[in-house]
Amino acid sequence: MENMLNIYLFGKKYQVPSGLTIMTAMEYAGYELVRGCGCRNGFCGACATIYRIKGESQLHGCLACQTEIEEGMYVATLPFFPLEKRVYEINEIKPDMQVMMQLYPEIYSCIGCNACTKACTQELNVMQYIAYAQRGEYEKCAEESFDCVMCGVCSSRCPAGISHPQVAMLARRLNGKYIAPECEHLADRVNEINEGIYDEKMAELMSKAVDSVQELKDMYNHRDIEK
Amino acid sequence: MYKIDKLNELAKVVAEKRAANADLEPTRMTAEEKDALLAEFHPDYKDGEFTVLSAGVNKGDKVPTQLAELLQGSSRISASDVDLSAPDFDTDVLIIGGGGAGASAAIEADEAGVKAMIVTKLRIGDANTMMAEGGIQAADKPNDSPAIHFIDAFGGGHFAAKPELVNKLVTKAPEAIQWLNKLGVEFDKEEDGTMVTTHGGGTSRKRMHAAKDYSGAEIMRTLRDEVINRGIPVIDFTAAVEIILDENGKAAGAVLMNMETKELLVARAKTVIIATGGAGRLHYQGFPTSNHYGATADGLVLGYRVGASLLYADTLQYHPTGTGYPEQIFGALVTEKVRSLGAKLVNINGDVFMHPLETRDVTAASIIRECTARDKGIETNLGKAVWLDTPMIEYKHGEGTIEKRIPAMLRMFGKYGIDIRKEPILVYPTLHYQNGGLNINVDCSTDVENLYAAGEVAGGIHGRNRLMGNSLLDVIVFGRNAGMCAAEKAKGVNTPDKLTLNHIEKFNTELESAGVKNETASPMLLPHYARKK
What we know:
By secondary structure, chain A is an alpha+beta fold. Chain A has helices at 22-28, 97-103, 115-119, 126-134, 138-144, 153-156, 164-179, 184-195, 199-211, 213-221; strands at 4-9, 12-17, 48-53, 60-63, 73-77.
């Protein structure tokens, strides 16, 4: 017989088989999910969830699709959290300190409680990446926050009202566009294509694809493969 | 450590042979060997799993049985349920779907100066794009060219793709990367800006660009941010349930349904783009899937009912390396990048049984053969699987490589006590991608005027098998293209005056006379996972 565990979904007790995730346990209990369910693989942040084990004081943040249930788990999903996203024109901002001060001034109200880091569902050092953002060190902020799925659990715990995932999003775009080195071979290839130097070759391949597929098959089967 | 002792024992066999296996350069299969393998072991070749359509433009063609049921299912509405004369929304370009293709289309339509609007049944970004891990192809290195990319993609798709679509895909690829980079998408680069690129299955040049193993997530979250910055309306938790036509049979909007309140709404538009993605959640042939929750083939149903034809709807991609164990992540994607970085596929005896970078269909069929006919799979409570020897990556490239290049994989297995740096993982094919879809032309138009399609819902770009990294590329290239072309078209179209849903009754009549009408409500919208008591 299956080992059954007691869990509490929004305070209501259900018995569900061990080995399920919080998400599949909800479905086992009969929930048809519309909210709080996205990729089911830990990438989209739709299933942000807060839980506490009965009798313990610590509150945990997690993704419901990536977390195995435990006995006595009190679960509250957080299918939406009001993050504050400020809008900007990416081509008109610069990767300097002012942009963060203007768009997300509340990051300077951080009191260093580290609740964001403790709550992070991806085990990121959230407070550290906010510190980098405060100092205008966007490259470091981008790297430290890279695995963020923007679930918002960090922000739900923040006494300063910071929308951490949005701060990190801005830092990554600044880094990707302005700070990371430009790629020369990419620009060269785009220019070559625009100049039309491949046009003839491509037209020839397309006509072979219609008229003499066998020739293309030979080319494919005997092509040189880079080691 | 695995919770099952037997697996820890078997993993030792893999470790013992690791050094020898790492040095091995397995031979690639010949064209004849591949054909024979596919015919015997690939799920696309299992006749019993398909149904021949009895109605609609593809009458006589076979499609997966679960898809046939939806294509020939019942509309969720009748024409009398909505008042078409008083639209709730009016826009130039209506985009159905909030994934990579839909977001790219919206940005380009906005850039072209027309009114664009996105409707999505979940949230913007709840899409397979978000979950694409390994990377995006583009022939931008000196030893590569669009022509070489063309041959890889066309050959990998068994010479069945529409050549003009492949041409578009590969010649617009470098520009797509540049566009993303200029939006602020981060790519793995060397210090001098050179892109860090790797192989994918079936590529002849290292042209896989990546952002660690969050490539799709990095692209999707940036596109989403840009859509919001531009103030493009995104109507979330709102599904399209029928396309609306005008009196001349041209697309003119859609009937929408609020997923929570079930309220029906009418959106009128000059042009419509279907960008609803794939169908993994239909679990063809009982396979688990790597797809997101909303991958239920809705766009195929919407388009088919108004007369847009399907191309290669019978070809699906089973990603060779879905998670085979543990159960909590069963079927979840293990990115092909794991093999690009040097991990090999190994059987129960610790032997490498194939070249790890054959195309996906061949690799999946080979793993299935290893677990069935050859009986050299590893048995767990979830079925058979083979080893993917992840520690080989650090054996070859040094400690720290896994954390740096595939952090999502390290985290995903780490949550269940499996350290992929030290232990091999168990994999088995998972339903991953719809190779075919709505038949499109090079401007993303379908058979129905003013109706466009882009992304996974479209067919013809990848023939009968898609290469790794050509899907992220497809959603960007063809998403942008659809946005531009639909915007351009909308500029020359007047706001449609007479909207109709007559096609519903017409299709019902056709189904009835063919004797196939079933009660399955379609589009499906969401899978039915709640346990029935």
